[in-house]
């Protein structure tokens, strides 16, 4: 979550909480209409005012990090120093706001390179279009793991220049993640989130529990547009071990869909946008749901009564790429090297809610944020990594494996 | 003024159509600018799309074969059509009384109804979805009432299923249905109704035999636009629907942006376009779409005349039957329709009011009831330069697009209506195609055209794309009204010595102005509402207001969007109320 927002929340929360308490009585008549959620929710939000203040202190402590970095740079010219600009894609919203504050602004101060940021919902179609037209307006874009192989094959990217990286960055980023033409921006997880007002501390702990409607009754939510997460969850619930999940061959897809048939009647909401699951949980439309980790973390840190279950969470990477034919490729390489410095990586995580791959950043993260992240060792040992290369690989009939499971999913949904 | 055209003189009218149809009139020149514009910005990209679906350079039918291989695609197409038809039908039933009350009601009534109809369009999709959960959710108001009265024993599912999709979509397409009907209805000469009453027709009969047939061009225009709009919607079904409420646009969109299978997406789009054009063509066999819109191909003249006579006889029979029936019906003293329309308007406003209420909530989520009140959502909007900049960018682009679309579309409408050129049916189909095809596909195709001339990432380039999308709305709305523009007025003016320009200024312009205003309004809205063209044509450098709002849904769970929506609604409401009040003062 963006530090800027943390500070604003912290500053604002006090008068707002007082105002809320004052107006509680005048609201009674409105309450009669709908009485389901207000009390526990209010209590929770009010309590969160205090936890926010402690958060604020932690954030303030972390804030000193870029300052130190800047101070040292004043003495020695940074090896990433350059000139001109770099056109950088990001996904917009608070994600981009966080990036600007924690990465782009310090980057400009350190290197003298101006960041022109461009935002959109998705980068991939635009990158493909620019490449086809032969007019590449961006330098770097974030590409989803499953789409990367085909785009790489079509020659859209430049190799990553790891010679610009600090030794510490290389050491903290596992070798297997450092691809020749791409390196992870962040890992995002889809995990089980539940309403602690319903289950208290004895909530579901695995995907088997998600399927167990007797022990954990109540409506559920699952992601509708893409099946890869749901198939994985179903197989885990059916007793398959994590190491056997990938690749998602046809027989496993059959087995998973059969398992999904079981839970289908209990899924009251098939969500689409990442902001939906926390909202559905808060409004008691569902008691548990699959949920993007970033959205759950923001909600939890704002005081929402939501708990995350890391066991069996689906993790996949989004990649930094340098676009072939882009106007400032060299500066793009510098930015990618810069963002993977541990201190900056920690800023990235705080700013966007999604952790980059350099585990050394854990040293710089506030102690109450780190345990919520997928790279926190205890969580990292429980997650399942998607086999993006397999998803993006072509089958004998010309379709990718991703296309194949997508078609099976469409069929399952339409029936 | 319009009464002379439909049945009593239909034979004469169609004969004159036939005799003059051999040769295009001077009006046909008006088709030129719009046609050139659409050729460059739509037909060329459409051609590219067709080639893409055929896998050029390796010519193949594989993409079409793949659609046939998996029954799911046709099932999804069927679901799309089912949803679109149900929504259009429901919206029509609800819209007609409102449009009628708008036409016949006083100015307060008009201001209220117009506001109620138009505001839902401005509520942001996520805020609106949440408003629906407050009303229809598991713990929502409706379930609460039903439970309390013991009508049900546990909450019923009113959302996240087909029912939710139909309610949610009907709510937002009603302006599209009502405004074209309203512009046509307000040009119906009320003296005709009085004449019918004087000759012994009951109010019901006068309505059925006079008003209803004369309002048909507006009905067709509204139904057509609403139906096509439904085909293209995918965000509302995704947010309010169940697992199997898949629309073909959702699938095409996912093929384009999430899987990058453009060849296959192009093939799916071509199948959709073909299916819709066939439906419209079949529809036009039973329901004379072109004729009612005021354009009929000359060769069909005698056939339509014959159909008209049958229609007239049928209408007379309906009239006498209704006259007999009317004696047995209870009379509401003429208040029935206004009461019905007002209650429908209140229902339309419910979600809108909830969104406005939530915008003042102190909570950092959508929570109902609000735990306290605060202006923090408004502070977040005004305090963020990006929000404000996005707002102005949206307004600039929408103004450019509305101006271009109104001028080009208005000319196309005149040319189509009066140019008497051959193949007008085909031309209408072509003009409609940009909104039949999924926006995402047209947007990719348009990007390739704009990028060749360096207009990608500019506000003007984006406005060009939006104009292509807005022209169909303008053409359909204006054409439905030209149907009733009696050329004898112009001939009278000309014979009295007025030049063509003076005739246009004094006769035509005032008569078509209401429809042009409504058309411009929709052109503005289609641009102002877009989140898809901007994704490609803006190449990330342009940020518009809806794009910011959509980011808010995808990335955040911040209720700032409810404040943005409320500000938009306030602005729209002020414009509507002022225009209704001022408009009336001028005429009195």
TrEMBL record, chain A:
- Keyword line: Periplasm, Signal, Transport
| GO annotation terms (biological process) | thiamine transport
One term under GO cellular component: outer membrane-bounded periplasmic space
Cite the GO molecular-function annotations of the record.
thiamine binding; thiamine pyrophosphate binding
List the CDD domains hit by this protein, alphabetically. Answer: PBP2_polyamine_RpCGA009
Q: Where in the cell is it found?
A: Periplasm
Superkingdom to which the source organism belongs: Bacteria
What's the short name of a Pfam family annotated to this entry?
SBP_bac_8
The family annotation for this protein states: Belongs to the bacterial solute-binding protein 1 family.
Return the PANTHER family for the record.
THIAMINE-BINDING PERIPLASMIC PROTEIN (PTHR30006:SF3), THIAMINE-BINDING PERIPLASMIC PROTEIN-RELATED (PTHR30006)
Recorded protein name is: ABC transporter substrate-binding protein
Automatic annotation (TrEMBL), chain B:
**Subcellular location(s) per record:** Cell membrane
> What InterPro entries does the annotation carry?
MetI-like, MetI-like_sf
Q: Please name the Gene3D superfamilies in this protein's record.
A: MetI-like
Q: Which positions, given as ranges, span the membrane?
A: 26-52, 72-99, 111-135, 163-184, 204-229, 262-282, 337-360, 395-416, 428-450, 462-482, 502-525, 531-549, 561-582
ABC transmembrane type-1 domain sequence ranges: 77-283, 391-582
- Pfam families linked to this entry: BPD_transp_1 (PF00528)
Record bears the keyword Cell membrane = yes
- GO cellular-component terms in the record? plasma membrane
Q: Which key words are in the record?
A: Cell membrane, Membrane, Transmembrane, Transmembrane helix, Transport
Q: Does the keyword Metal-binding apply?
A: no
Q: How does it sit in the membrane?
A: Multi-pass membrane protein
- Give the family from UniProt: Belongs to the binding-protein-dependent transport system permease family. CysTW subfamily.
Q: What is this protein called?
A: ABC transporter permease subunit
Species whose genome carries this gene: Bradyrhizobium niftali
> Which lineage do the record's taxonomy fields give for this organism?
Bacteria, Pseudomonadati, Pseudomonadota, Alphaproteobacteria, Hyphomicrobiales
């Amino acid at each position: 979550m963006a530090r800027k927002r943390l500070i604003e929340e912290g500053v604002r929360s006090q008068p707002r909480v007082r105002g809320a308490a004052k107006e509680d009585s005048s609201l009674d008549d409105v309450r009669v209409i709908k009485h389901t959620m207000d009390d526990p929710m209010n209590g929770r939000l009010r309590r969160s005012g205090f936890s926010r203040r402690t958060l604020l202190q932690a954030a303030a402590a972390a804030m000193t990090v870029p300052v130190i970095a800047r101070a040292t740079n004043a003495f020695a010219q940074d090896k990433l120093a350059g000139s001109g600009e770099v056109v950088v894609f990001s996904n917009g919203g608070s994600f981009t706001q966080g990036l600007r504050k924690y990465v782009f602004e310090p980057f400009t101060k350190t290197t003298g390179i101006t960041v022109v940021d461009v935002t959109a919902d998705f980068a991939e179609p635009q990158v493909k279009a620019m490449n086809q037209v032969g007019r590449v307006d961006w330098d770097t874009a974030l590409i989803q793991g499953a789409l990367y192989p085909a785009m790489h094959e079509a020659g859209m990217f430049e190799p990553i220049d790891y010679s610009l990286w600090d030794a510490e960055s290389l050491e903290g980023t596992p070798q297997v993640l450092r691809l020749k033409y791409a390196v992870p921006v962040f890992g995002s997880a889809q995990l089980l989130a539940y309403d602690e007002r319903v289950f208290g501390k004895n909530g579901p702990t695995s995907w088997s529990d998600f399927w167990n409607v007797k022990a954990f009754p109540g409506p559920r939510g699952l992601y509708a547009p893409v099946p890869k997460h749901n198939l994985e969850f179903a197989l885990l619930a059916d007793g398959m071990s994590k190491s056997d999940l990938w690749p998602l061959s046809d027989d496993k897809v059959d087995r998973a869909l059969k398992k999904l048939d079981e839970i289908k009647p209990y899924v009251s909401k098939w969500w689409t946008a990442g902001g939906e699951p926390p909202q559905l949980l808060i409004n008691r439309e569902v008691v548990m749901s699959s949920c993007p980790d970033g959205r759950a973390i923001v909600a939890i840190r704002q005081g929402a009564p939501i708990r995350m279950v890391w066991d069996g969470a689906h993790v996949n990477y989004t990649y930094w790429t340098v676009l072939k034919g882009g106007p400032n490729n060299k500066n793009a390489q510098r930015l990618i090297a810069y963002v993977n410095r541990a201190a900056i990586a920690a800023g990235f995580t705080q700013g966007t809610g999604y952790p980059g791959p350099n585990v050394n950043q854990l040293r710089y993260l506030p102690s109450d944020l780190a345990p919520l992240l997928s790279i926190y060792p205890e969580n990292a040992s429980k997650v399942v990594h998607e086999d993006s290369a397999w998803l993006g690989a072509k089958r004998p009939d010309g379709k990718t494996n991703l296309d194949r499971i997508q078609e099976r999913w469409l069929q399952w949904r339409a029936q | 003024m319009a009464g002379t055209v439909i049945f009593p003189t239909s034979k004469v009218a169609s004969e004159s159509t036939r005799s003059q149809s051999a040769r295009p009139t001077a009006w046909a020149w008006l088709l030129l600018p719009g046609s050139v514009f659409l050729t460059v910005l739509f037909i060329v990209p459409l051609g590219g799309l067709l080639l893409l679906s055929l896998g050029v350079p390796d010519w193949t039918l594989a993409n079409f074969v793949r659609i046939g291989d998996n029954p799911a695609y046709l099932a999804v197409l069927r679901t799309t059509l089912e949803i679109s038809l149900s929504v259009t039908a429901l919206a029509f039933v609800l819209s007609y009384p409102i449009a009628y009350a708008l036409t016949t009601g006083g100015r307060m009534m008009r201001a209220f109804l117009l506001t109620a109809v138009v505001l839902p369009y401005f509520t942001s999709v996520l805020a609106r979805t949440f408003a629906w959960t407050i009303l229809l959710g598991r713990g929502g108001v409706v379930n609460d009432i039903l439970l309390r009265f013991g009508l049900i024993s546990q909450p019923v599912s009113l959302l996240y299923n087909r029912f939710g999709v139909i309610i949610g979509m009907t709510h937002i397409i009603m302006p599209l249905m009502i405004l074209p009907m309203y512009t046509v209805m307000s040009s119906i000469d009320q003296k005709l109704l009085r004449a019918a009453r004087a000759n012994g027709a009951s109010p019901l009969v006068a309505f059925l035999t006079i008003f209803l047939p004369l309002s048909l061009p507006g009905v067709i225009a509204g139904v057509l636009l609403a139906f096509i709009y439904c085909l293209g919607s995918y965000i509302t079904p995704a947010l309010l629907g169940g697992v199997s409420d898949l629309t073909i646009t959702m699938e095409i969109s996912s093929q384009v942006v999430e899987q990058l299978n453009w060849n296959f997406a192009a093939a799916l789009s071509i199948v959709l376009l073909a299916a819709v054009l066939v439906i419209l063509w079949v529809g036009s066999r039973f329901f004379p779409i072109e004729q009612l819109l005021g354009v009929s191909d000359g060769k069909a003249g005698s056939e339509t005349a014959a159909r008209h006579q049958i229609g007239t006889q049928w209408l007379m029979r309906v009239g006498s039957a209704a006259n007999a029936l009317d004696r047995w019906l209870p009379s509401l003293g003429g208040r029935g329709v206004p009461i019905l329309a007002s209650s429908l308007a209140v229902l339309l406003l419910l979600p809108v009011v909830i969104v406005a209420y939530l915008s003042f909530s102190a909570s950092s989520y959508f929570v109902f009831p609000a735990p306290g009140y605060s202006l923090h959502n408004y502070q977040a909007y005004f305090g963020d330069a990006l929000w404000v900049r996005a707002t102005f960018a949206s307004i600039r682009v929408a103004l450019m697009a509305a101006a271009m679309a109104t001028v080009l579309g208005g000319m196309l409408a005149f040319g189509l209506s009066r140019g008497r050129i051959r193949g007008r049916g085909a031309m209408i189909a072509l003009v409609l195609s940009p909104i039949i095809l999924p926006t995402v596909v047209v947007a990719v195709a348009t990007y390739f055209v704009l990028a060749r001339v360096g207009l990608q990432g500019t506000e003007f380039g984006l406005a060009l794309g939006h104009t292509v999308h807005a022209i169909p709305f303008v053409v359909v709305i204006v054409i439905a009204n030209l149907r009733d523009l009696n050329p004898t007025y112009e001939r009278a003016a000309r014979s009295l010595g007025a030049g063509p320009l003076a005739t246009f200024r004094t006769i035509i312009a005032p008569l078509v102005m209401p429809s042009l205003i409504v058309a411009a309004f929709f052109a503005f809205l289609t641009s102002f509402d877009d989140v898809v063209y901007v994704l490609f044509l803006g190449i990330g450098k342009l940020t518009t207001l809806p794009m910011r709002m959509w980011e808010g849904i995808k990335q955040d769970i911040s209720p700032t969007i409810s404040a943005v929506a409320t500000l938009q609604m306030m602005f729209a409401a002020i414009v509507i109320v002022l225009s209704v009040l001022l408009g009336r003062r001028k005429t009195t």
